[in-house]
Design goal:
The chain is an alpha+beta fold. It has one domain: Hypothetical Cytosolic Protein, Chain: A (2-Layer Sandwich). The chain has 3 helices and 5 strands. The strands form 2 sheets. A 3-stranded antiparallel sheet has the order 4-3-5. The longest helix has 10 residues. The N and C termini lie far apart (about 30 Å). About 20% of the residues are buried.
């Protein structure tokens, strides 16, 4: 049996398979990108593919604290589209 990689959502603290999460990355240059491949260079944080979780991340600014950078409205809108 092949082991399924699991990661923790920074908002709900649930351990889920990587494919059920969205990875948001702060690149070494300081840009924020949504990493669909899961292999982009930089500091990453995982969010559950759930509109409520993304809205909660936006309100609480938890994702911004994890990545130590401000996140634009456009990134949150893209995350909602992906959820």
């Amino acid at each position: 049996m092949k082991k399924i990689p699991e990661r923790t959502c920074v908002i709900s603290r649930e351990k889920l398979p990587k494919k059920d999460l969205i990875r948001v990355v702060r690149t070494p240059e300081g840009n924020i990108i949504i990493d669909e491949s899961g292999k982009a260079n930089g500091r990453g944080a995982y969010l559950k593919r759930d509109k409520e979780i993304i809205e909660k991340a936006k309100k609480s600014k938890q994702l911004e604290r994890n990545l130590e950078v401000q996140i634009s409205e456009e990134i949150y809108n893209e995350l909602i589209k992906l959820s």
